[in-house]
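Q: Could you fold this chain for me?
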Amino acid sequence: MSRIFLTVGALSAGLSVVLSAAFAHLPAFANGLPAMVQTALSQQQFHALGLVLVGLALRGVPASRCWQASGWLMLVGMLLFSFNIYARALLGVDSLRALVPWGGGAWIAAWLLLALGALRTGGAQAPRP
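A: Sure. Below is the predicted structure, expressed as structure tokens.
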């Protein structure tokens, strides 16, 4: 699980840079990015780093269900929030707009579970092979 979150987090961070550059060069956004797209990009970047953090944490405590759930919720949040907004801005897909707040809720739950997992492990780490 650690490897998945580290890999997806790193790829998502890179993708956010690519998307940021692509949006900046699209003629439709010549006057600047809409606030919703800026928010989606910054949240994707922040939660990509969160995924990397979860992946690193799981290297020490691979059995933490809270941290595993946290990583999955960060991914769900990216899909429901950031990628939903990108689809709306680029493709005009507006039918899934109601899912954006669910993405934000997934992120909130992810951070709470990360904290709960930290409390439950008590800072102890599994022995390294």
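A (continued): Residues 2-121 form one domain.
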